[in-house]
TrEMBL record:
Organism listed in the record: Rotaria sordida
Annotated keywords: Signal
Record-given protein name: Uncharacterized protein
A Pfam family matched in the record: DUF3862
Length: 161
């Protein structure tokens, strides 16, 4: 695997500002470097994945941007959002239901947005993966992570400890 170049870095704030529909040239201009480019071929579609690393030398943080036919359609991040722990109780975690909207989930967990680890959008459809730390109960040894997948603003999948 090719290594990142020293300047292939992005902040979490800049990552959040990147918009669906941008071209690779727009991303490169915005970030200031081309990133690590990884061409893919899936079902003969023109897909390019561009990755950047976070600014911290001590934490591995990766941001990925996926381009389909030259337009940004997905973005993901790993270890970028440490601004808040996004902790919820086991009761809050258990209350979340398949079919709820993102706003219903936020209302149930004290209006926390959660750690948005992945977003996608193309042809009027949207997707998002959000994680919360579910505070352990007496039977658990450690906190767990609840992962919610949204399609068009509705919970379609819920993985919890």
């Amino acid at each position: 695997m090719d290594a990142f170049l020293p300047n292939d870095r992005i902040t979490f704030e800049r990552y959040q500002q990147v918009q669906f529909g941008w071209t690779r040239d727009q991303l490169t201009k915005y970030v200031g470097t081309p990133g690590k480019v990884m061409p893919l071929s899936i079902d003969n579609q023109n897909i390019i994945q561009v990755q950047y690393q976070g600014l911290s030398p001590s934490i591995i943080a990766i941001a990925g941007f996926g381009f389909l036919n030259g337009k940004l359609f997905t973005k993901t991040q790993f270890n970028f959002d440490f601004t808040v722990n996004y902790k919820i109780t086991k009761e809050q975690c258990d209350r979340i239901q398949i079919g709820w909207t993102y706003q219903q989930v936020r209302a149930a967990v004290g209006n926390q947005k959660g750690n948005v680890v992945s977003e996608s959008g193309t042809n009027g459809n949207t997707g998002m993966v959000v994680q919360y730390t579910c505070i352990k109960d007496q039977q658990q040894k450690v906190d767990g992570t609840v992962t919610l997948a949204f399609v068009n603003d509705k919970v379609v999948s819920k993985l919890q400890p």
